[in-house]
TrEMBL record:
GO molecular function, one term: glycosyltransferase activity
Assigned protein family: Belongs to the glycosyltransferase 2 family.
Organism of provenance: Paenibacillus jilunlii
InterPro entries for the chain: Glyco_trans_2-like (IPR001173), Nucleotide-diphossugar_trans (IPR029044)
Domain Glycosyltransferase 2-like: 11-59, 91-144
Stored PANTHER family: GALACTOFURANOSYLTRANSFERASE GLFT2, RHAMNOSYLTRANSFERASE WBBL
Pathway: Cell wall biogenesis; cell wall polysaccharide biosynthesis
Name of the protein this chain belongs to: Glycosyl transferase
UniProtKB keywords: Glycosyltransferase, Transferase
The keyword Membrane is annotated on this UniProt entry: no
Entries under Pfam families matching the protein: Glycos_transf_2 (PF00535)
Length: 353
């Protein structure tokens, strides 16, 4: 491993909520990473299934095993002094379910590493996942986020996500979801990365945060990764998909039918798209976006009124948070304007020269 790259620190952040069945496998895969992980932060959102206890037990077991593992490492290397790197594991317990976005902001605030891997507890990684992504991001400082090829745990031949894409109607999708993995061999720049196993640089985190929030806490959960991806793109950052970095995702409710999803989840997922558009859509593209999305909006809301009328209550959270959303929009749009003005000024100076 390149010494310069290995000097870059990384922490892994996992938010759990009734994740007892998955967390041990997830943590085992993190500890097996080739790249030295400095810190693991698990934020437990008031799980009722003993998840926090499993994290503590896992930590205790590793702590007890660490001395003997270090001795074996020293013997294998034939050196008098050798240390096996063991990341620290911090468990932060919340008294209530604060949501995915606020809990990950909590973990980000608890670390100061160069890179942050946001990881779902139902996801496991190949040992070179972190090293591949950091190497790619160090090679191009404009890349602020990266992901690998995420496959379905139940069927490793099928894709879970190879990054995010967003169409002109501002609808976001996981690239390649459900498609054969063999169809996605090429690495490259993407719109954004899925929050299931997303590597973010601290530089980007600090640059695109709004009022100290990387993930928008008003989102609670769902589409917060799309919101970050869009904001990052608007601020000039790139996202990258590395086809050689591989992870396996249980995926949960997204693979089931729509009717199986609780109304609470459907409301959050539905309204967060509009919160995202309200904050991020530049004024210069607002009309064309509205025009392009009109057919979809008419069809979607017609279906909603006929089949899911209770979904309309989601707008209550939008109006309750509108003042905060307005402040965030003002900041985001002002920064976009400043960046565009700066580029124009640089272009003018180049022409003058």
């Amino acid at each position: 491993m390149n010494n310069y790259i290995s000097n870059k620190t990384v922490s892994v952040h996992i938010v759990t909520y009734n994740s007892a069945d998955d967390i041990a496998d997830c943590l085992t895969a993190v500890y097996a990473q080739e790249y030295p992980v400095e810190q693991i932060v698990v934020v437990d959102n008031a799980s009722a299934d003993g998840c926090a206890g499993k994290v503590r037990a896992f930590s205790d077991t590793l702590t007890a095993q660490a001395p003997s593992a270090q001795q074996q490492e020293a013997g294998a290397e034939g050196s008098l002094k050798s240390e096996l790197h063991v990341p620290s594991l911090t468990l932060l317990g919340n008294h209530t379910n604060t949501g995915f976005a606020p809990a990950h902001n909590q973990a980000i605030a608890a670390t100061n590493t160069d890179y942050v891997l946001v990881l779902n507890p139902d996801l496991t990684l190949e040992p070179d996942y972190i090293s591949r992504l950091i190497a790619r991001m160090e090679a191009n400082p404009r890349i602020g986020s990266a992901t690998g090829k995420l496959l379905l745990k139940a069927d490793h031949s099928r894709v879970d996500s190879t990054g995010l894409r967003m169409n002109r109607a501002r609808r976001a999708f996981d690239r390649g979801a459900g498609e054969p993995a063999a169809q996605w061999p090429e690495s490259g720049i993407v719109f954004g990365v899925s929050g299931a196993a997303a590597m973010y640089s601290r530089r980007m985190i600090e640059d695109i945060s709004v009022n100290g929030e990387f993930f928008d806490a008003d989102f609670f959960a769902y589409k917060e990764d799309v919101d970050v991806a869009w904001r990052a793109e608007l601020f000039g950052w790139l996202a990258y998909y590395d086809a050689e970095a591989v992870g396996y995702h249980e995926r949960g409710w997204k693979t089931s039918g729509r009717d199986s999803k609780p109304m609470f989840i459907r409301r959050i997922s539905y309204i967060n798209r509009y919160k995202m558009i309200y904050k991020n859509e530049p004024a210069r593209t607002l009309f064309s976006t509205l025009l392009y999305s009109l057919p979809y909006e008419a069809a979607a809301h017609g279906y909603m009124l006929l089949k899911e009328p209770k979904l309309i209550k989601a707008w209550g959270s939008f109006w309750a948070q509108r003042r905060n959303l307005k402040k965030k929009r003002k900041y985001i749009q002002a920064k976009i304007k400043s960046l565009r003005t700066g580029k124009t000024s640089q272009g003018n100076k180049a022409v003058e020269r």
